[in-house]
Design goal:
Its EC number is 3.5.1.28. This protein has helices at residues 7-13, 52-56, 118-135, 145-148, 162-174, 183-190, 246-251, 304-312; strands spanning 18-20, 37-42, 67-69, 75-77, 103-108, 142-144, 203-205, 211-215, 219-224, 228-233, 268-270, 280-285, 288-293, 300-302, 328-329, 335-339, 342-346, 352-356. It is α+β, with helices and mostly antiparallel strands and 359 residues long.
């Protein structure tokens, strides 16, 4: 598979309006090999507009995504080569920290808080559906930057439930009309391990009154329209809540009202292998990625610049191992986070340094 020089005709065949920037077919950071799918973004720009040229010729990144999508639902082809848009991150099937090489990026003109107009959301769905059909991929091959890049603290595309978005993309690919879906029920269906539902009604949660929660036998499922619905697993009965459980760890940070906010990805069980010192579990939230080792009294979360650097070092399988503290400030204005085998120090200059044990 080569560069997606077919993007414009494929999108136009789907009934979408597409403009092309001069030089788009010669712009990029090298050529694609096999393309895994699509990475969805928002630009972070406020109304009324954001120039696609900024995506094509970003001052520090160069080509920052292949496509720009305006608020009015118009696509602009910015380049067809590899773009620097993914950064550090992970997702099943994608090389860790190497999403740029396998993902087509779409930068939608949105500040992440304004909501999504019918014109823009509809074009986003139809455009992704057309691209995935051309690639021969399913609806599962579109993910949000907030899903892939949670370790960086990414939250784009803001205000978009990616599970619902994937469902809408699938409907568009099959030519079916959109149907009303209860996303908590949908989350329980794709995660049968949660067990029996323990409440018939949905409980209102969150400061804005838009969140919903339902307890199940083995997890609580939380929903917010900006992120979707995800289960947070309870403690392992063999270890108890004092030594396991992401839900219990999250509760210690005041659930969705605390610094972590709502869950944004499914949890992952981490086995004791591939360099890990011990087993545990991990789940991404709006405010960071929460880790808890089996046997530990609490969980710790990583985020931001330190989280991005830790990811580049190999996450918990790297030389530093699992986090054993959250970030804390030093008298010099820097920020430190401790790990099993050392610490990371963010200097006010912006540099991140690795401190070995004892420094």
């Amino acid at each position: 598979m080569a560069d997606p020089i077919w993007l414009t005709p494929v999108l136009r065949d789907a009934g979408l309006t597409v403009n092309e920037l001069h030089g788009a077919y010669n712009r990029g950071h090298g050529d694609f090999g096999t393309i895994w799918g699509v990475l969805a973004h928002h630009t972070g720009s406020n109304p009324p507009s954001n120039n696609p040229n900024y995506i094509a010729n970003h001052p520090s990144l160069g080509l920052a995504s292949q496509l720009h999508l305006s608020r009015s639902g118009v696509f602009t082809l910015c380049g067809v080569g590899i773009a620097w848009h993914a950064g550090a991150g992970s997702w099943p099937g994608i090389p860790t920290n190497n999403g740029n090489q396998v993902l087509i990026g779409i930068e939608a003109e949105n500040n992440g808080r304004e909501g999504w107009s019918d014109a823009q959301y509809g074009a986003y769905v139809k455009g992704v559906a057309a691209i995935l059909k051309r690639l021969g991929r399913g609806q599962d091959r579109v993910i949000g930057h907030k899903e892939y890049g949670a370790i960086q603290g990414k939250w784009d595309p803001g205000g978009m439930d990616m599970n619902l978005f994937r469902i809408r993309v699938g409907e568009a690919m099959r030519g079916r009309p959109a149907v009303i879906i209860n996303m908590i029920d949908e989350a329980a269906g794709r995660n049968p391990w949660v067990g029996d539902r323990r409440s018939e009604r949905e409980i209102v949660v969150g400061g804005d009154g838009k969140g919903r929660m339902v307890p199940f036998a083995n997890a609580h499922i939380y929903f917010h329209p900006s992120v979707g619905a995800f289960p947070v697993p309870h403690a392992d009965p063999a270890l108890g809540p004092e030594k396991s459980g992401l839900f219990e760890a999250w509760a210690s940070y005041n659930y969705e009202r605390g610094p972590l906010g709502y869950p944004v990805r499914e949890f992952t069980r981490l086995e004791k292998r591939d360099g890990r010192s011990t087993a545990g579990a991990v789940q991404a939230f709006q405010g960071g990625v929460l880790y808890r080792r089996d046997g530990d009294a609490r969980g710790w979360f990583v985020t931001g610049v330190i989280g991005e650097r830790w990811a580049a070092e190999g996450y918990e399988k790297g030389p530093l191992g699992y986090p054993v503290s959250n970030e804390y400030k030093r008298p010099d204005g820097g920020v430190v986070q401790d790990f099993e085998h050392g610490s990371m120090y963010w200097d006010p200059s912006g540099a991140v340094k690795i401190l070995t044990e004892g420094e």
